[in-house]
Amino acid sequence: MSYIIQLVQGYPAHIYWGKRLNRQGNLSDILVRVERCSFSPNPVPEDKTISLDTLPQEYPQYGTSDFRHPAYQLQLEDGTRITELLYQTHRIIEGKPELEGLPAVYAESGQEAQTLELELVDAHSGVTVILSYTVFEAFNAVARSVRFVNTGKQPVSLLRALSASVDFPDDQYESLYLSGAWAKERHIQRRALRPGSTVIESRRGSSSHQQNPFMALLRPDTNEERGEVYGFSLVYSGNFVAEAEVDQFATTRVSIGINPFDFKWLLSPGESFQTPEAVMVYSDEGLGGMSRTYHKLYRTRLCRGFHRDKDRPILVNNWEATYFDFNADKIEDIATEAAQLGIELFVLDDGWFGKRDSDNSSLGDWYEDSRKLPNGLNDLAQRVNNLGLQFGLWVEPEMVSPDSDLYRSHPDWCLHVPGRRRTTARDQLILDYSRAEVREYIFESLSQVFHSVPVTYVKWDMNRNMTEIGSAFYGPERQMEVAHRYILGLYELMGKLVDAFPHILFESCSGGGGRFDPGMLFYMPQTWTSDDTDSVERLKIQYGTSMVYPISSMGAHVSAVPNHQVGRMTSLATRGDVAMSGNFGYELDLTQLTPEEKELVKQQVSSYKEVRQLIQNGELYRLKSPYEGTGNETAWMFVSEDQTEAVVYYFRVLAEPNEPLRRLKLSGLNPEVEYHVDKLGASFNGDRLTHIGLPLKPVQEDFVSECYRIKAVKN
Ligand code: DGJ
Fold first, then answer.
1. How far, rounded to the nearest angstrom, does the alpha carbon of residue 690 sit from its chain's CA centroid?
2. Separation of 396 CA from ligand 1 center, angstroms?
3. Residues near ligand 1 (Cβ within 6 A)
4. Which atom of ligand 1 is nearest to the CA of 510?
5. Which residues, 6+ apart, have CB-to-CB distance to 533 below 8 Å?
6. What is the rounded distance in angstroms from the CA atom of residue 305 to the CA atom of residue 644?
7. Which is the catalytic residue, given 349, 531, 532, 577?
8. What is the pLDDT of residue 25?
9. Is 69-301 a CATH 1.10.10.10 domain?
């Protein structure tokens, strides 16, 4: 791709982003400059072709002739809100510098990426703003962020500090974004742009179940395989905004960053503020192309650490098996079954600490409940290890229960506003992670558990959103910083923990997928996708999530029927195929299965081990969308990078009488190569599988799935 910036009278103008242009051509006359326009003022008196209202810009300002949404706004000490950023200097750096205190994609060598830092200055206040752009050798992506440095003499306040803004020259686009609610996260929304704004945002203190920090612009005829798409993904876990604004001249401004709602940041002379990073992806190979770029970039250059490239273990989690009602023997029984079935990791979920018999107590008291575990947590972990399984543990370290020793000792350690009610949700309050002593306490208590128990996996949960956002630590002038300071504190603590315990595989969770975002993936390479484990509901959730997030990041478990969220009865085979399309595991009482079911689980576990590499690291091709038509069919496939192997999953929700004769066209295969399809016991050329497809059998049952394994025939 090409991304072109031009300086126009010192203003950094955005000239082009899209398919790669021939570098030899003259690029300086791309910008259309006409003398217009009523009600669009001209900041350079001698050049009436310039109005910031019509100039496409890299980082639009407020109050000097642009009436669209600005990317930033500063308030100076005298109360004024006008600044004017003009080019000062620039530099090009090999590789990619880290972002101070924030998660970001990275380069492993200077050859992989280059970073342009464009330095702008507001002469009046002396504030310097550095726009950073990283381009990658291997990805059609630009990572953008902004650093504000108060190089002036007076304090200033940031009222708005977005990470990226792009002005597109027309409005013939649709927006696509991922919305939902608890247990139905990241459902795809797609709609045409109209004059005015399409805005998605979170004001909940976390990225949220309701909206995901991602928006794409695509041409109306763009589909999975063809057409242009521009993706904007924010590497941030707190309040965000993403907006597409169509203006009076039918141009479109897309911007993304920290939500300016309830945000203000005081910047004293000498201080700096780093925005989160926006990762912008261009694809002219449709949505599939965009997703594959995000998947590989995030899997290999956002996720980090020991587990980044490792096979993720098949786990069994006891939450839906026992909820809070368990003891060591019950856990050992489940683990014993798990070991016999080939499962690799047992995860002890909520309820092992304090006096936690329900969700109304003990968060903050991170020591074992000796009523449930009389011989201790370490003893239980050893018993699980002796069965040949790894041991994993649930924690919810950002929370405190009013009924806890921690809260009784430190009632001001939670987010709160003096004199106001402390609103609880799930009977809990949120610890004030903007305070170093709170983070230190949690680091120490968790470290003690992780040192004394052989834990190799941790599920890090977070089960409510912020109310009464305030901190007892900060003065009145910094209260509007608290929501962002919380996220910075969270990042600092997670960073410290993953450094201290590099062997632990961390999975993040927020009532399922309430904080499934790139910021969390920088610390924890996998996320519990949703509390909804019903295989039909999961089709939409996993399909939507796969727009941006790699398969290796998406936890997907087989649970019991009737399903605990929707009461639906589906077959174990279908539940298995849906869960195997992600980071696989079980979430049910294995001791309750019939011998036939156990046999099937054993087969599922062993076949997932065979295809795990392919699913977790392969290229995803979405073949049929649960969002199209009646949503009755969904299909996707995973293809190895060398195109020698693939696995295809096809799902049918409801059976139909007298059903049409159907075929499933595949994608991502080499047209020249002959492939053997296991279920059909026959071989076909890649082009035939792509253009004619696999014949699908009529079904006489609801909720069915088919899996096909495909291998290149060696000649
Ligand atoms: C919410 C999570 O999403 C569930 O998987 C489970 O861990 C519960 N919390 C435990 O309280």
1. 31
2. 9
3. 319, 349-350, 394, 461, 463, 509, 511-512, 528, 531
4. 3
5. 320, 557, 558, 559, 563, 564, 565, 587
6. 28
7. 531
8. 73
9. no
- Decide: pTM greater than 0.85: yes
**Residue with CA at minimum distance from ligand 1 atom 4:** 511
How remote is the CA of residue 587 from the centroid of ligand 1, in Å? 11
Give per-residue pLDDT as tens, 47-62: 888 899 999 999 999 9
As given in the structure block, the two tokens for residue 213 are: 């920090």
Q: CATH assignment of 622-712?
A: 2.60.40.1180
SS3 (DSSP) at 445: helix
Residue 629 burial (C-beta neighbours within 10 Å; 0-12, 13-18, 19+) = exposed
- Which ligand 1 atom is the nearest neighbour of the CA of 509? 3
Q: Closest residue (by CA) to atom 9 of ligand 1?
A: 511
Contact at 8 Å (CB) between 150 and 121?
no
User: Is 412 in the active site?
Assistant: no
Residue located via tokens 């399309």: 581
Q: Give the rounded percent of residues in the chain with a pLDDT score beyond 90.
A: 95
End-to-end CA distance of the chain: 37
Cα separation of 481 and 479, whole Å?
A: 5
The position carrying tokens 């595991």 is 585
CATH number of 315-617: 3.20.20.70
Q: How confident is the model at residue 24 (pLDDT cuts 50, 70, 90)?
A: low
Lowest model confidence (mean pLDDT) among 20-29, 265-274, 446-455: 20-29
Parse the chain into domains and list their residue ranges: 69-301, 315-617, 622-712
Distance CA(378)–CA(645), nearest Å, equals: 42
180-192 tens-digit pLDDT: 999 999 999 999 9
How far are the Cα atoms of 245, 546, 553, 627, 639 from residue 614, in angstroms, in the given order?
40, 15, 14, 25, 7
Yes or no: say if 236 and 190 are a contact pair by the CB < 8 Å rule.
Answer: no
329 catalytic per annotation: no
Statement: residue 36 has pLDDT above 80: no
Residue 304 CA to ligand 1 centre (angstroms): 25
Q: Check if the beta carbon of residue 227 is closer than 8 Å to that of residue 219.
A: yes
Q: Give distance in angstroms: CA of 633 to centre of ligand 1.
A: 30
Q: For residue 148, give the nearest of 81, 85, 198, 105 by alpha carbon.
A: 85
The predicted pLDDT at position 685 comes to: 97
